[in-house]
Amino acid sequence: MLRKLFTQTETVRTASSIPAPTATTTYAPPYASLSSLVPDLTTTQWGNWYPNATITPTDTANPYGNASWSALWNTIPWVNFTRGIYSTTVSPTPVPTSELILPPPEYNVPETCYYFPKDFMLGVAAAAVQIEGAIADEGRARLLTKAERDC
């Protein structure tokens, strides 16, 4: 990783985008090759919810499937449901050095004295609900208390 060091005498710094990658680096084996290491689990990938959809999900036996997720949305009495139309992407703007607060030096540098066994695999699982914006898109949901308040 290359890092540009700035001096305190520079007056303007401009953020610039990094180029799009031409290849994707793989850091871990695919799920299919690791799934045998854990008990039988169900994984779900939700799409977008459409209030006027004519197709009904059929995975009713799966408590975390698309039918269950769609049922969650169908119980809320929506009025004027619309999709998000805004983006928060902005262009970089030069900022004078006098207005910048520079980060402290890196005190925590990587240690080279720790080693993991060759067959060591680190597993991470996470889930999060987006509270505001882009609701019903890509599995995002409203906060339960907000949904109850709006009904």
Task: Walk me through this protein's architecture.
13% of the residues lie in helices and 3% in strands. It is largely without helices or strands and 151 residues long. The chain has a domain at 47-76 and 117-151. The chain has a two-stranded antiparallel sheet. The longest helix has 9 residues, at 66-74. The radius of gyration is 23 Å and the shape is flat. The termini are far apart. This is Glyco hydro 1 domain containing protein. One of its GO terms (molecular function) is hydrolase activity, hydrolyzing O-glycosyl compounds. It comes from Pyrenophora teres f. teres. InterPro entries: GH.
Which characteristics define this entry?
151 residues, little secondary structure, two-stranded antiparallel sheet, 3% strand
Tell me about the largest β-sheet: 2 strands, antiparallel
Q: What's the order of the H and E elements? A: EHHEH
Q: Work out the number of β strands.
A: 2
CA radius of gyration is: 23 Å
Rounded mean pLDDT is 72
- Uncertain segments: none
Which strand-content bin applies to the residues?
A: under 5%
* Tally of helical runs: 3
- How far the N terminus sits from the C terminus, by CA atoms, comes to 51 Å
Provide the helix percentage: 10-25%
Query: How would the global form be characterised?
Result: flat
Which structural class best describes the helix and strand composition?
little secondary structure
Main sheet: which strands, in order across? 1-2
GO molecular function: hydrolase activity, hydrolyzing O-glycosyl compounds
Protein name: Glyco hydro 1 domain containing protein
Organism: Pyrenophora teres f. teres
